[in-house]
Specification:
With 498 residues, the chain is an alpha+beta fold. The protein folds into three domains: 1-285, Transferase(Phosphotransferase), domain 1, CATH 1.10.510.10; 290-337, no CATH class; 346-497, Galactose-binding domain-like (Jelly Rolls, Sandwich), CATH 2.60.120.260. Helices cover 28% and strands 27% of the residues. A hairpin with a 3-residue loop joins strand 1 (9-10) and strand 2 (14-22). Helix 4 (111-130) runs antiparallel to helix 7 (190-206) and helix 7 (190-206) packs antiparallel against helix 9. The longest helix is centred in the middle third of the chain and has 29 residues, at 287-315. The chain is globular, with a radius of gyration of 26 Å. It starts with 8 loop residues before the first strand and ends with a strand.
């Protein structure tokens, strides 16, 4: 088995660049994927494990099972295979770093940011548990935090698969993340993932000292190590890592809901602010990639300059003439003294967005609030997604859920454009000064008020209506992996302000 080396090509496609991490089971490299012009991460099973066929097969098999998880907080798996005796996985590359490295360099994070990070982790666990997959080895090593604060969880079930298949099983009983029943040799369950999440929350709040228990005792509360940690967060930690499974939160979703109900402990700063900008070793990009990026700068400057000239001519601020061929328009030029009307339709800025799940209608008060910003972040690869339900009508639990778009003032709305990775769901658009599912829906020119988001990008034309915001009130869900959900990757509103 030859050593892994830079410039080696895997699967006739991925060109290895440089190592960026080494864990208990895998080593991680960056690689170029020329086919899709992107940087990816490649995880290699350590050679001592890869030499055991049953371990290698279990590693690939479990990775394939994890590939069916599609969620904004789950690290995407692109490919898997073996080459020259090496077993490898190809995943998305996260520009940032593992949570453990960030905590080692920067220490515990702001309590509000810790809660926000945990909500992302718990959302990923909920997705996996709904799909019948248990993580079994959640630690701060396999949670990644991107430079923009996005949280990704990887390695679902990998450690358990290797441990089960290995002739000389990997012993990790000393790990503080492992629930007591795992230490006794019992199988991993959703409850063991909840236990690990409680330990991870303690680590976020107060560092490694909050994860270790004295012999025969229990680990200290985070506030006992770091004064200022809210007592209610102590209580979440205590319940999640209760020694008896029945005393823990019944699910990852229940633990997430408990964190979201702590209104006073909402983030005082965003995750990106709490962790700070990525350090050079966290970025992990090769010099070649960086050079390619800098080579784009001259071309960008040329394109922007040309656009400025064309725009200046169109607006009358420039005219043909002068020694350089272009000069400023004369003051008495009609075009220069008559700018376009301010009433022209354009994109209405959305100043904030939040989830709506009224408890009065059977909801629990929240629907993935940690994801709402993904609906207006300009990245169609990320999305706010509802919970997954047993039927298109929310399992008969409630009439709908929604997303409130706040304009920060009155605007005349003419259309709404929605981009989604899961088309087929239906929505009402309800205007007003605040989100009210009982309000009057906005109408199309033909009088329709219920609209189907039938394609990846759907534009809904409306009768012009003046409102301070719009509630996307989702009434019917779309099929999604055997269950039903709705996702908003991007949403924009057209009209005029004021």
């Amino acid at each position: 088995m030859e050593a892994i080396a830079p410039e080696e090509t895997l699967a006739s496609r991925y060109v290895l660049r440089s190592p960026i991490g080494d864990g208990r089971l895998t080593s991680v490299w960056t690689a170029d994927d020329p086919t899709l012009a992107r940087t990816v991460a490649v995880k290699f099973l350590h050679d001592d494990r890869a030499r055991e066929p049953q371990v290698r097969d279990a590693f690939i098999r479990q990775a394939t099972a994890g590939a069916r998880l599609v969620h904004p907080n789950v690290l995407a798996l692109y490919d898997a295979g073996t080459q020259d005796g090496h077993a490898f996985l190809v995943t998305e590359y996260v520009r940032g770093g593992a949570l453990r490295g960030l905590l080692e360099r920067r220490g515990p994070v702001d309590p509000g940011a810790a809660a926000e990070i945990m909500c992302g982790i718990l959302s990923a666990l909920s997705c996996a548990h709904d799909a019948g997959l248990v993580h079994g080895d959640l630690t701060s090593e396999n949670v990644l935090v991107g430079a923009e604060g996005h949280v990704k969880v990887g390695d679902f079930g990998l450690a358990e698969a290797v441990r089960t298949a290995s002739v000389d099983a990997v012993r990790t009983d000393a790990s503080p993340y492992r629930a007591p029943e795992q230490v006794r040799g019992e199988e991993a369950t959703p409850s063991t993932d909840v236990y690990a999440a409680g330990v991870l929350l303690a680590e976020l709040l107060a560092g490694p000292a909050a994860t270790s228990a004295p012999r025969g005792g229990r680990a200290p509360a985070p506030s006992a190590i770091r004064p200022g940690v809210p007592k209610r967060l102590d209580q979440v930690v205590e319940r999640a890592r209760a020694p008896v499974p029945a005393d823990r939160y019944p699910s990852a979703a229940a633990m997430r809901a408990a964190l979201e109900r702590l209104g006073g402990e909402r983030p005082s700063m965003g995750v990106a602010d709490a962790i700070g900008p990525p350090e050079p070793d966290e970025v992990g990009l090769s010099r070649r990639s960086a050079l390619r990026s800098w080579m784009l700068v001259p071309a960008i400057v040329v394109v922007l300059g040309a656009a400025a000239i064309v725009g200046g001519l169109a607006l009358g601020r420039l005219e043909v003439g002068g020694p350089l061929g272009i000069r400023a328009a004369a003051p008495d030029s009609p075009a220069a003294t008559h700018p376009p009307s301010s009433g022209a339709a354009g994109t209405i800025p959305i100043v904030s967005v939040r989830d709506v799940d009224p408890t009065s209608d059977g909801g629990d008060g929240s629907e993935h609030p940690e994801q709402t910003g993904l609906a207006i972040d300009g990245n169609a690869a990320t999305a706010w997604t509802t919970d997954h339900y047993a039927s298109a009508d929310f399992g008969n639990l409630k009439p709908g859920v929604g997303l409130w778009l706040d304009f920060g003032g009155a605007a005349s709305v003419r259309s709404v454009t929605i981009t989604t990775p899961t088309p087929g769901w239906s929505v009402e658009l309800i205007g007003g000064s605040h989100p009210d599912p009982a309000g009057t829906p906005l109408e199309s020119p033909s009088g329709r008020t219920l609209f189907t988001v039938s394609s990846a990008t759907t534009t809904i034309t409306l009768q012009p209506a003046r409102t301070d915001g719009i509630l996307l009130w989702i009434r019917q869900l779309a099929p999604d992996g055997g269950r039903f959900s709705a996702s908003v990757a991007e949403v924009s509103v057209s009209g005029t302000r004021g």
